[in-house]
Amino acid sequence: MSNTSETVFTGLVDLLAQQLGGRALACSDDFFAEMGNLVKPGRGVFLPDEYTDRGKWMDGWESRRRRGGADHDWCILKLGVPGKVRALDIDTNHFLGNHPPYAALDAVFAPDASLEDLQNAEWNEILPQSPLKPGSQNIFVAPSDEPISHVRLRIFPDGGVARLRVWGDVVTDWKLTEDREDTIVMVQPNEVDLVSLRNGGRALACSDMFFSPMENLILPGSAANMGGGWETRRKRTPGHDWMILQLGARGTLTMAVLDTQYFKGNFPESASLEGIDAPGARITDLINSEDWVEIIPRTKMESHKRFHFRDELKSAGPITHVRVNTFPDGGLSRMRLYGIREE
């Protein structure tokens, strides 16, 4: 049965996510529903009475019924950030009588290739033709030791797929910098955002993410609205909320940014930041560790505002992980942690 809840892989990144810049480039056919829907957030919606001049409106990629010719349809997509694949989700949510019975996925590493080059490239099959269930997340383990930049989804013979997720580990281009202009002008030439998803940062664990996922905190760019950040439920018990993140590389922090953009009646009263140097530590070890060092003391927050910290940072030396604390609860739109990467 179709629904909106989504199984995700904590600690891995959806390399194809639209929020990271993932996009569909070309397909054999998208007569009923556009290929660009494959990379959108969520699992898609179903509007029972919505039709277009081509037929039933569907929130996904849907080709027409195949009548002769090639035995399958295909779609080429560019990842938002190159990486090594660990798992795949070919989601047929809401596609019940029109899903493809089988699908396969190919991959290639050609970050600067033109569409013509990609169409003539030697693709690597990382998922052989496999059966798909209707109205379901179809999850496959597809480990790859080599980085990829593009994927090609093949469906047999035709039909509709709501979303495609390519879960994996980011392969970082440390020259890449993306942030708001008011922050970029403050960044020194040798500083990089150590926690950005684009640079391999990971949200590992948090006390609560009732209203929005923790990964939003380190997405590139600005959130489009309040739902684009990390927001916890109202805390009715003692204590405070927190999130533990792994840096993309071990490094020393030199500037931090905490942003409450769009959070006006639900921003944290205050926040703090801690760091730890614990390469290879397990998540449970990090949660229970007493070795966290204060980097930003508990500081009063305000609504809909971006806070920059540089002189206020306490030296913690090189670190591998951070813990951001919000008191007692509330929402943060983005966090940036600029610093010097350890070679």
UniProtKB/TrEMBL annotation:
<feature type="domain" description="Allantoicase">
    <location>
        <begin position="200"/>
        <end position="340"/>
    </location>
</feature>
<protein>
    <recommendedName>
        <fullName>Probable allantoicase</fullName>
        <ecNumber>3.5.3.4</ecNumber>
    </recommendedName>
</protein>
<dbReference type="InterPro" id="IPR005164">
    <property type="entry name" value="Allantoicase"/>
</dbReference>
<dbReference type="InterPro" id="IPR008979">
    <property type="entry name" value="Galactose-bd-like_sf"/>
</dbReference>
<comment type="pathway">
    <text>Nitrogen metabolism; (S)-allantoin degradation; (S)-ureidoglycolate from allantoate (aminidohydrolase route): step 1/1.</text>
</comment>
<keyword id="KW-0378">Hydrolase</keyword>
<comment type="similarity">
    <text>Belongs to the allantoicase family.</text>
</comment>
<dbReference type="GO" id="GO:0000256">
    <property type="term" value="P:allantoin catabolic process"/>
</dbReference>
<dbReference type="Pfam" id="PF03561">
    <property type="entry name" value="Allantoicase"/>
</dbReference>
<dbReference type="InterPro" id="IPR015908">
    <property type="entry name" value="Allantoicase_dom"/>
</dbReference>
<feature type="domain" description="Allantoicase">
    <location>
        <begin position="21"/>
        <end position="170"/>
    </location>
</feature>
<dbReference type="GO" id="GO:0006144">
    <property type="term" value="P:purine nucleobase metabolic process"/>
</dbReference>
<keyword id="KW-0659">Purine metabolism</keyword>
<dbReference type="GO" id="GO:0004037">
    <property type="term" value="F:allantoicase activity"/>
</dbReference>
